[in-house]
Amino acid sequence: MNPDATGLDFVIDAVTALFLVVGALMSLGAAIGLLRFPDLMSRMHAATKPQVLGLFLMLAAIGLQMRTWWVWPVLLVAWIFQLLTAPVSAHMVGRSAYRTKHGHREMLTKDELEAVVQRAAAGQEPGNQR
């Protein structure tokens, strides 16, 4: 420990350590969920929700530890890109799983996409409902 460290330095280091540990646990939980969850839909949930929060906590820890203002916009841009791309990729994986029948349809309570997929397979436009 630095002998001239102030109380504020100790608080920042403690918050940084907490963010790093919680962020690492969230990312570890996402990785375990990808390996252990039984079906595609629950694996997609594990790949997006805790992973994005874990990355946010890791980036916040880096920003706190750097103690400079210019690093925050860069970290914010990195987190926003992750926040925008993770749900979109999970949506595309879920959509392709639905269309190729790799999902468990018996687990769905209501299938709101079935009529749209059937109309698209028949070649009808989405607005033309006959």
Specify Rg, calculated over alpha carbons: 22 Å
Helicity, as a percent range: over 70%
**How many H/I helices?**
4
The oligomerization state is single chain
* Envelope shape: elongated
Structure classification? mainly alpha
Low-pLDDT parts are: none
Proportion in β-strands: under 5%
Give the overall pLDDT as a whole number. 83
List the helices and strands and how they pair.
Layout: H1 7-36, H2 40-66, H3 71-99, H4 114-122
Write up this protein.
- The protein is mainly α.
- Helix content is 73%, strand content 0%.
- The chain has four helices and no strands.
- It has helices at 7-36, 40-66, 71-99, 114-122.
- Helix 1 (7-36) runs antiparallel to helix 2 and helix 2 (40-66) runs antiparallel to helix 3 (71-99).
- The termini are far apart.
- The model has no long low-confidence stretch (mean pLDDT 83).
Structural key phrases:
single chain, 4 helices
Short characterization:
With 130 residues, this protein is an all-alpha fold. 73% of the residues lie in helices and 0% in strands. It has helices at 7-36, 40-66, 71-99, 114-122.
